[in-house]
Amino acid sequence: MAGSNTEAIRQLSVELKRAASLLDEPEALETGSVTSYISEQFVSGTGLLDLKSKGKEPSVPAINDEEGSRDEGDIDGEYEELPLDDSSDNESYDEDDDYDDTIILEWLNSKKTRAYITAKYEPDHLDNVPGLRPDVVPYDHQAAGASIIKDSLDSPRQGIIIGDLPGLGKTLQVLMAVASTREPGDGPCVVVCPTSCVSQWKQEAAKFFYESNMKTIVLTGEAVSPVELFKYQLVVTSYSQVVSELVRYRKFFKDMKDYTPGAKLPKRPTLTLLSAIFTFSTKLMGKMLVLDEAQLIKNPKSRSFSTMSVLREYFQSCVMLTGTPLDNTWKDAFSLLKLLRDHPIFTPRTMIHAFVLPGTKKKHGSRPVSTRLVRFVQALDATMLRRPQDTIQALLPTITTDVVQFIMQPADIHNSNEKFDMYLKWQHMSKKKKGKMSAKARAEEKNAGFGALISATHWTNHPSLRDILHFEKEAMKKSMYADEPADNLDLSVHDQEYLQAWRGEIAKNRNWRSPRVDIILDTVNRHRDWRPDDAFVIMDESVFFLDILEIALSNMFDPIPCFRFDGRSHPAKRAIILDKFRETPGAKALLASRGTGGVGLNLQHANVLIICGPWWKKSWEDQAVGRIYRAGQAKPVFVYMIEARGFGTGRFKHCGVERFKMKKRDEKNKLNTKILEGITRKDDEEPPERRCF
Predict the structure, then answer these.
(1) Given pLDDT bands bounded at 50, 70 and 90, which one contains residue 48?
(2) What ranges does the record list as Acidic residues composition bias (predicted)?
(3) CA pseudo-torsion sign 646, 647, 650, 652
(4) What does pTM read for this prediction?
């Protein structure tokens, strides 16, 4: 009996190390038969996979058993970017002796690359889709997009990026392709999306298709056997859910490594999508992996990208959906290209060498210019389908955008600018000391600089926010950079009571007023006087500022119903919140954090958007507008952008932090817009002239 246990533990150790190596160096999987394989691979009594049936024992590579250097808050990889000093655009890349520019040129000039581009402008329309409800009539661009997705499955590229602007109905295009390509014995299509969009995918599948043709399961926190997935055509889950499987696996691996004979065996976690069944299977899990809001994996150093890279190996193709493919910089495209095949952009270093002219870093940073910019546009054109919003212009209502400015109080603008100057000083010193500080010292300095930046914003929003600076810093990491509930902050009972008392004092003392709060309430009331039945979505980066705003809206002379939608709402309750908001008649307001409500949602039952202040990225603003300005919107759309401004001259003339945000936003948007305009065309346009390099 003891020998049997020893052998079982040995097999488990080999299996874990094999799976771990795939997390670090994913290997291509071969096709075969999975249904018979699953039933044959278990050893009676141990529950372990029978590795001997593979014919040879897998190698045991070295593995770093650390669980990662980042918090769960890096789920979309943005937090590491935000010190906003453009360091991510000015990295030092040494000359690469292995880089061969002729390989890039051959790919860009090849007939195959040209064929990828021209095929987008000669698309068939996908008709007679199995299981599509008779009352669902796709638009022409959706039928064309579905056909292009279908064709991409069998192409050497093995997938495609669908970069249509928000509101063009990417979900239906994907579901049509899934239904049209499914054959008996196929595994499921897996959709990975932000947590706030999971229930929406399930609802859309039921709305467009009969259940018999699009049977759907949603993977949440509950354990599901991987074998169960093959009963469904569609599996919907979130990025955080899949990453959590990786975290549980790594913890288990560490516990097994530390295991001593005679002790209790660590409990093996139940893994669903990252199960060893798929790691060792000779058949792919399914034909299509769909990554919705794919810009969330743009950081190639993040856990989310690493996990999706592993998951991608289990599928024939990868379809990535994003209305903002260049969310921050042009280099965001690397992570998306990495999940496609049949191109030579293998590493970030290769991408820099291919698309940045040598010797231009000092003048332009690590950015493509001149002929290298044309190269990059061609590379994206061969891998991405992007149609403009005016593709459905006849289906869209009018849209009006107004910038609403308010004048800050002298004390507030003085304190805000003082804190912002501290941030600039930290930024300058950080550059000066780069490479001369320990990692710990740099982290402490970075935290102090980030705190000064948050404080500067506090003074522009509401002075009471300075009383919760610590909470705000942690919440901003979650709300701004990840779709995670704020209760992941592990607040103590004392901290929770403190925040509750903070909100209570504001309400009790009627201390909700500030110049920004006043202008938002004034904007709501002026619009209501004009159009009394319109519904509002009010978005901000700070859930705590939205707390203050909720109190203020509830205490107006003529209050309107308010609903909250942010990371603190449990994912299972978010669909209920949206249903209640939709069903409430007349004027109403949905207070949504940018991190949770700003991407992926369909909110056509509201037609007024108020963005409470400037954001760091134009793509964030575009995504927020796209929540209400989309096909199916029956009312005129109104967008109000709130901005602070100073008065007089000298230090009071400008609000430093907001001016800085807008400058950074516009600088990055200028290049991104130029690149994306080069590949954005309607289906009936002529293909671009062939470019040779």
Answers:
(1) very low
(2) 64-97
(3) negative
(4) 0.81
